[in-house]
Design goal:
binds zinc ion, about 60 residues, about 0% helix, mainly beta, four-stranded antiparallel beta sheet
């Protein structure tokens, strides 16, 4: 599952499909993005936000 950030509300959003659409500059890969708040967008892949990253850093007790 590919995750990104909703351009409208900033919540997590899922990339549900990808398609190559023709444009004046040649074919551009677009992705359909559906957010947890049910916003959806078709955006060029290059304009998608980077996936949310939650680094799992183990908490070491300070003893
Ligand atoms: Zn949203």
């Amino acid at each position: 599952m590919d995750l990104t950030t909703c351009p409208q509300c900033g919540n997590a959003a899922e990339i549900t499909s990808r398609d190559v659409l023709e444009s004046t500059d040649g074919p551009i890969e677009h992705a359909k993005v559906v957010c947890v708040s049910q916003h959806w967008f078709v955006l060029p892949v290059a304009s998608l936000a980077a996936p949310l990253r939650h680094p799992t850093r183990p908490q070491t007790p300070a003893i």
